[in-house]
UniProtKB/TrEMBL annotation:
MF terms in GO: FAD binding; FMN binding; monooxygenase activity; NADP binding; NADPH dehydrogenase activity
Organism: Lentzea flaviverrucosa
Listed InterPro entries: Aldolase_TIM, FAD-bd, FAD/NAD-bd_sf, OxRdtase_FMN_N, YqjM-like
Gene3D superfamilies assigned: 3.30.9.20, Aldolase class I, FAD/NAD(P)-binding domain
Keywords: Monooxygenase, Oxidoreductase
All residue ranges annotated as the NADH:flavin oxidoreductase/NADH oxidase N-terminal domain in the record: 394-727
FAD-binding domain span: 131-326
Source domain of life: Bacteria
Matches recorded under SUPFAM superfamilies: FAD/NAD(P)-binding domain, FMN-linked oxidoreductases
One Pfam family hit: FAD_binding_3
Protein name: Anthraniloyl-CoA monooxygenase
Length: 785
């Protein structure tokens, strides 16, 4: 096979070496525009999993790498005069220059032709003359640009500025220096890569960077560093450097750019590493991802002789892994962009927040690695709540207004579409009753509609009649008599999303018959095929407000402990809030203040009739997930407005406002929006919801201060007694219904060890050049992620 590799960085060279090793008959040529001795950056970090793959694929090269590793197991976090150490990790790093030297030598020994200081021929030319073209030419890939219409890239430049530097200070562990300055928060990511040097990355928000005077425009020739900025950094971080030097290597201020591609291959052209995808340096090394790509690509080409089949297999195998990494990287980089929000957190909580920022690392991970640190986190959390650290965070009680909740777990509102004429029946009694007996502190109804026209589907429940009220009263009474859970009422109006089929018959699809007229802020349908709503006039607004108030009165009579006003998911009140659905030109449209007007009028009318001693909360969509829609910045203002009108909590969901949305799904993907509101809005509790599926996630969210309570939806459909089972899993004695107490302890046969054993990749007799720093037996999964 005749192979062209564009880019002589670690990803390109490693792939070339692997292909030659697998089959010496391959004709492999690498083009690198820089000289052989030119490299940028300092150290690169590898995980144990990556090293294991390298060792299996090429033991000789892996052995050469291992002789140059610096290894350490701790993370040190320095914040506001305190230093916290978290142990039990496993890291390996080496000089990027050494790595490139080893790869160049390996390629030369195997017979790979490498052209240094030579731009590659055009990708189209290479594609015509070679069996395979590998684009390993980095974030600004010319190969990718040559087929831009096929790869369909998105390039997202981020808001932080960073500079990659080195120092002769050899750190004994990974270092996070969080520095308060007169201009804002700056941070350093530092780690050793040899017995003589460490990487020293300085990062800050662009606003801080400007205030600190780093934004003076200057032009630098290729390979020339911003020495003025480097000198300033030496001064700012003199204490952290402790008299040691800082070195530059083409070091300039950069903005990290997140690159994604809809496709990674086209014909016989394929992308690897930063050409295909980027992941923020705060969760590890782009070099690591590039070399993993190369290993997977070489393996697929070896297994499948047909190039197209091999490239498809490569993308199928690697894409889920990379996208998962990118989700974690996105969460991490956004955390550092917003680090100023957390500056006032209690130091132990701040450290825990930093370590769990990507949502890959959780409380249980940390407890496994460093039980003493986990104990400090528990104690700090309990002290902040005025409680004793005798229960997991999720089982600590919480006071919502004047309502006492036994724990911080909520069964989220979930539409069941099983009512007849709006009347909840036996299904709802069993459904909500089982959830109330399942251990959660608060159980929410589905969206209960305020009028027949306000239903989503014919199967939706309501509170526009006394019959409906009395049926709800039966359910509430069961919850109160048979459990210690509280039960909350969610009130809403479907708006332009009404008159649709039952979910399992076609979600958001119009009814085939028996339709009713729908209404909205503007005559704009929700999506293709949706009915055009009538634009609500003054009489409509007054009528609907009165319907909400009447339903709230019936809810109070039914005995509900709490009321939630549904202002999310594109229903009527949500659609007034969103510029995507609300394009009015009167006092109820245009500015955010105007778009808030009707939802606040409804809130005030409901609050006026809802008993003062019972809390009232609001669910909002914190982002519309579409250009031109509401963003997290609007959500902060929306939350503030409702809190100013008396909301006791903000339940933070996202999206479902338009069929054109493009959500960034992932683990706990909505929690960052709750986190922002909790840190920027005072006077109310914050509820996180969305893809929170484990008790470990709940504890991690609460301990980090990202929310006060967690609402769990689909997980409670899978297991109505999920909260009680979570207590048993954590050896916490929650209060079980007396009838179920015989099953309150997990059977010994069902228990599993918290940590699965593995063989360490460290050698018993480390080669001479390996640097061990605070060495202890380590575990999987880098805390950088």
């Amino acid at each position: 096979m005749k192979i062209a590799v564009v880019g002589g960085g670690p990803g390109g060279l490693y792939f070339a070496a692997l292909m030659k090793q697998l089959d010496p008959s391959h004709d492999v040529t690498v083009w690198e525009r820089d000289a052989a001795d030119v490299t940028f950056g300092f150290g690169v970090v590898f995980s144990d999993e990556t090293l294991g793959g390298i060792e299996n694929a090429d033991p000789e090269f892996a052995d050469a790498m291992s002789r140059r590793f610096a290894r350490w197991t701790d993370i040190d976090i320095h914040h506001r005069g305190e230093s916290h150490t978290v142990g039990g990790q496993g890291f390996a790093a080496m000089s990027r220059k050494d790595l490139l030297g080893l790869l160049q030598r390996r390629c030369r020994d195997l017979g790979v032709v490498v052209h240094f200081s030579t731009p590659a021929p055009a990708a189209e030319v290479l594609s015509a003359s070679h069996d395979l073209v590998v684009g390993a030419d980095g974030v600004n890939s010319l190969v990718r640009q040559s087929f831009a219409d096929v790869f369909r890239s998105t390039v997202d430049p981020r808001r932080n500025k960073y500079m990659w530097l080195g120092t002769d200070l050899v750190f004994e562990a990974f270092q996070f220096f969080i520095k308060d300055t007169p201009w804002g928060t700056m941070q350093v990511h530092g780690y050793p890569y040899s017995d003589s040097g460490s990487t020293f990355i300085v990062e800050m928000h662009e606003d801080v960077w400007r205030r600190a005077g780093f934004d003076t425009a200057q032009e630098f020739a290729p390979g020339v560093s911003d020495e003025r900025a480097v000198d300033r950094i030496r001064e700012l971080f003199a204490e952290e450097l402790a008299g040691h030097q800082v070195f530059a290597n083409n070091s300039k201020w950069l903005s990290f750019t997140t690159v994604r591609n809809e496709r990674w291959h086209h014909g016989n052209v394929v992308l690897v590493g930063d050409a295909a995808h980027t992941a923020h340096f705060s969760i590890g090394s782009g070099t690591k991802l590039a070399m993993e790509d190369s290993l997977a690509l070489a393996a697929c080409l070896h297994e499948h002789r047909d190039v197209e089949t091999a490239l498809t297999a490569y993308e199928t195998e690697r894409r889920p892994v990379v996208e998962s990494t990118q989700r974690a990287a996105q969460a991490s980089l956004e955390w550092f962009e917003n680090i100023g929000m957390y500056a006032d957190q209690e130091p132990t909580r701040f450290c825990f927040n930093l370590l769990t920022r990507s949502r890959r690392i959780t409380y249980d991970n940390l407890r496994t690695r460093d039980p003493e640190f986990a104990d400090r986190v528990d104690t700090a959390f309990a002290a902040s709540q005025g409680l004793q650290a005798t229960a997991p965070a999720m089982f600590q009680p919480f006071r919502l207004g004047q309502l006492e909740l036994k724990n911080r777990v909520i069964v989220s509102a979930m539409d069941m579409y099983s009512a007849v004429d709006g009347v909840p029946g036996d299904f709802h009694l069993v459904h909500l009753g089982s959830k109330a007996m399942g251990g959660a502190g608060l159980v929410m109804t589905e969206m209960v509609c305020v009028s027949p026209e306000g239903r989503i589907t014919p199967g939706c429940t309501g509170l526009w009649t006394d019959e409906q009220r009395d049926s709800w009263a039966r359910i509430v009474a069961f919850a109160h008599e048979r459990s210690t859970a509280r039960i909350g009422l969610q009130l809403g109006h479907s708006g332009r999303k009404g008159s649709t089929r039952l979910m399992w018959e076609g979600m958001d699809e119009p009814l085939p018959e028996g339709n009713w007229d729908v209404i909205g802020p503007s005559p704009l349908p929700y999506g293709p095929g949706s009915p055009v709503p009538a634009e609500a006039g003054r009489e409509d607004l007054d009528r609907i407000t009165a319907e909400f108030a009447a339903a709230a009165e019936r809810g109070a009579q039914a005995g509900f402990d709490l009321l939630e006003l549904h202002c999310a998911h594109g229903y009527l009140l949500s659609s007034f809030l969103s510029p995507v659905a609300n394009q009015r030109t009167d006092d109820y449209g245009g500015s955010l203040a105007n778009r808030l007007r009707f939802p606040l009028e409804v809130f005030d009318a409901v609050r006026a009739v809802w008993p003062a001693e019972r809390p009232m909360i609001v669910r909002i969509s914190a982002t519309d997930w579409v250009d031109g829609g509401n963003t997290e910045h609007d959500a902060v203002q929306i939350a503030r407005a409702f809190v100013a009108h008396g909301a006791d909590a903000i339940d933070v969901s996202t999206g479902q406002v338009t069929a054109d949305e493009r959500p960034a799904y992932g683990r706990s993907y909505q929690t960052p929006f709750a986190d922002r509101i909790r840190h920027e809005v005072t006077g109310a509790a914050v509820i996180a919801v969305g893809a929170i599926a484990s008790y470990d996630d709940v504890n991690s969210i609460l301990l980090a201060g990202r929310a006060d309570l967690c609402a769990i939806g689909r997980t409670h459909l899978y297991d109505p007694h999920w909260t009680l089972h979570a207590a048993a899993e954590q050896d916490y004695r929650a209060e079980w219904p007396v009838q179920y107490r015989a099953g309150s302890r997990k059977p010994p046969s069902a228990r599993t060890d918290a940590v699965r054993p593995r063989l360490s990749l460290l050698r018993a007799d480390p080669p001479d050049r390996t640097v061990h720093l605070r060495w202890t037996p380590h575990r999987e999964h880098s805390l950088l992620a």
